[in-house]
Amino acid sequence: MWRAARFAASRLSNRSMRPFSTAIPGPCMVHKRGADILHDPWFNKDTGFPLTERDRLGLRGLLPPRVISFEQQYARFMESYRSLEKNTKGQPEGVVALAKWRILNRLHDRNETLYYRALIDNIQDFAPIIYTPTVGLVCQNYSGLFRRPRGMYFSAKDKGEMMSMIYNWPAHQVDMIVLTDGSRILGLGDLGVQGIGIPIGKLDMYVAAAGINPQRILPVMLDVGTNNQKLLEDRLYLGLRQPRLEGEEYISIVDEFMEAVHTRWPKAIVQFEDFQMKWAFETLQRYRRRFCTFNDDIQGTAGVALAGLLGAVRAQGRPLSDFAKQKIVVVGAGSAGLGVLNMAVQAVARMSGNGEAAAKNNFFLIDKDGLVTKERNKIDPMAAPFAKDPGAIDGLREGASLLEVVKKVKPHVLLGLSGVGGVFNHEVLKAMRESDSAKPAILAMSNPTMNAECTAEDAFKHAGENIVFGSGSPFDNVDLGNGKVGHVNQANNMYLFPGIGLGALLSGARIISDGMLQAASECLASYITDEDIQKGILYPSIDCIRSITAEVGAAVLQAAVAEELAEGHCEVGPKELMNMCKEEIVEYVTRNSVNFFRYAVVTGANKGLGLAVVKRLASDGLTVVLTARDEKRGLEVVDKLSQSGLAGSVVFHQLDVANPANIDSLAEFIKTQFGKLDILVNNAGIMGATIVDTDAYKAATASVVPEGTDWKKIMTQNYELAEECVHTNYYGAKRTTEALIPLLQLSDSPRIVNVSSSWGKLNYIPSDWAKGVFSDAENLTEERINEVLTQFLKDFKEGSIESKGWPAFTPGYILSKAAVNAYTRVLAKKYPDFRINCLCPGFIKTDLNFNAGNVPVEEGAAKVLKLAFLPNDGPSGFFFVESEKNFTFILQISPFSFSLPRMNLGIWKRGGRRPRCGGQSGQLNDDEGIKIEVVLNSEDDEEVVFRNGRPESYLAIVERNWDTRGWRGDREGVSRE
Asked: Catalytic residues, which ones?
């Protein structure tokens, strides 16, 4: 059985796996300004624009002055939504559903990021609103509900113009298109142009479930007219007021659209949706071998139904091979019903090995005229292969009623795709009690709810409690009394179509084959555990939709590779895909699926600097895992943060970084709850000594680099404390990082910030050997770091630290922080796609130093966040230090940090004296790691600036742009932000 990603980091760590079409886009150039931005849901952040952005983008004065964070906006929207629920209680169901759709649609039109956050966080509640069943009601009333266009509209009047029209769409790249002609919207019939609500809802599910980039989706309405007289007479109707095109006129319109789409976006996947049966099958056969396309009504519905049918076999306690023996009555000979029959017959033929002709024996097709047999005149060509021989079942003839068929056949499964509400009446359901199965399945799969063949309550009431029930629309579980529950399985296409599209996209498949669809269905069928199956549960909870989609996508991708249909995508070619094992494929699919939310972990975060960092990250819209050794204190802090307006943004997990079991538990928690990690701040640490004179300590540390202090009178130290310090500060951070790196690899922008200390600078270590190891950038390894620490602890235990060149006081702290700095450089080399840095945030006022520090925790947190939010081309492997008089960045530049010809760096300040630039060797050297130390007055603002070119280029810019008045380099394009 396919399961969640195993995070095979060891196999992928050195492979270039850059995110592409589905990945969160990096910072992009915004060409709009002012009100244009506020009217663009792709860029609009409402009141979330900080003042600096309001100035840059011409928004100051166009918004209320208060800046409302993303989390606050989310909480505000959810409060409005819950108020709507409360205020509409007792009103008709349709009225309530439309009111909910309206409030969501308004958000969608205003702020897409917030909209998808709300949708993903509340998928179980919102899916029935933006998708089935409410979307059917929306389509019926769409012309009256219309406020703002979404998607593209191609009509019969546009013939000959589509090739140019397609370039009117503003997105440069489109990956997923959902297309409808509005001819058969759900079970509601011809709704013309109003059917656009279906592609919009489907693509919202692609974004929410598959993580498709919302800027790369396109809903399309192909308006060829309507035969719905009511719409033609409606003065508000937005579509063409003409009868539908037919024959060659119709197909020429579809041909022109397909050619236009694949001229501009040759790799785009087109999903056909809600076409009337004759055109559904015609277009599927016409295009499926030429383009990457599929029909969700025929193939998606069939896949979900097949998964349910296979689950029903398991629910009977029988092996899947017995599926070939199941008698199945299918009610509905439309595109969905025939699609299910085709896929089910293929599955039976494969399992039995007897061919498709024999596989059809146990399937019975019923349409509006009754049982379909070969005696029927003018039989539909698509239904003809499933017509029964007259007299195949004694007493059943052409046109036999559903009740007659059920009584004679005694089917194991009764499956409805008729679009006729209530067709499974009380008599039919009671007849299912005589099924040849001890646990028969009743699947009423038609949408919307009013078109369901029966309700869940009626099914359990009349067919008996020992049934398996599935439906296309949502129903509540049925209380059977005595503590028993009749489980309702929503057999919704959303379980499959997002995974089919995602797998096809990431594989670069030329076409979507039957094998890929079968793989998707079988993957879904295997997702449920045997324990749940025995309870009558066939499908997983919608809450798990992202995990389900990832596994389905992986199964589709693997099938594409097996059938040699995969052409790869971007840097990941077909050979790389072929060499991946199942676990790597799942990981590959997961990591290339957009997760719109960002997650951070901060260790040692129940107070001080760690807590300040948590507050800042949460206020910036991240979900933050606050960790601490003391569970009680940690929970109390999270509770206080929740009351301060950060409810839901901060969660607690107990963590002692010196305890490997705690670390493993944290990694499993993040994997299960979030599926990835974006930022890790290693902040947990201890002093490694016992302060015996607090007042003397405060006096001695009034300067960050105290001199002439008799530390023996202030603190005591021993081997045990030093060993604990090294194992906490260095090995604890190292183990935590190693455990979380597989989750960070799933992020579009992984960041690691190691909180260090100015005491970690090498000049505090007398040992030339140790300094030589730590400063040898080219040969530095984890093993070499371990060698230094092992030797230090050995010498400490033997009482020879001073004679062997180790620091006299707090040596454990100094060595552990120096090791963290060195480890940062090693990690940066090992993971070049990460941004990994360490910093000394200053002498922070915390409990660790008895609040003797002179830097508020908020200032320190701001420096941590600068490194946590570095751009993707920012520095990596650097040690940032603030000394007592000057703000100094010590930048370790070496080939593993980044390519020197590609980037340079520098520092500027507003006013003050000219910077001194130089290195340990007094010159810049491209061939080995170098250190550039730039000293600036601390009373002014400083920023790191990155610019294309070589380091020398930047120094030349400084020469040209620095004078006694300070920096004046804006004219050369060097940004201050």
From this structure: 131, 202
